[in-house]
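Because showing beats explaining, we let one protein speak, sequence and backbone structure tokens together, and leave readers to judge.
___
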Amino acid sequence: MANVTNNRPLSPHLQVYKLIPTMVMSIVHRITGAALYFGTLLIAWWLIAAATGQAYYDWVNWVLGSIIGKAVLLGYTWALLHHMLGGLRHLLWDLGHGFEKEFSTKLAIANIIGSLCLTVLVWVIGFIIRF
């Protein structure tokens, strides 16, 4: 019996691949999807605190209003918006459009820029409404 593994090609190592925007957006889309689970737990915690009573609700608001809490909420906002835009990109592909290399790369770049701009917009509106 011949050793068939000697004639098989080796898989390329990660160092062989060149990072391209569509590859990065695919990875980030998966990471933001996982991060949304954590953020949903935060929203559930906040809603449970609101239903529990004023003292617990005030404490949760204090935690989420701290510098670390705001940073986590900022990250959650970005993850939510980035994942939403990525979902729209996937919907476009499901409809059979946007498979050209140049257009797909432009969509990937627009996804990151759009999610960052929308995050800033949401937070600016939030701070304007708050005061």
Summary: The chain has one domain: 21-130. The helical segments are 21-52, 54-65, 67-94, 101-130.
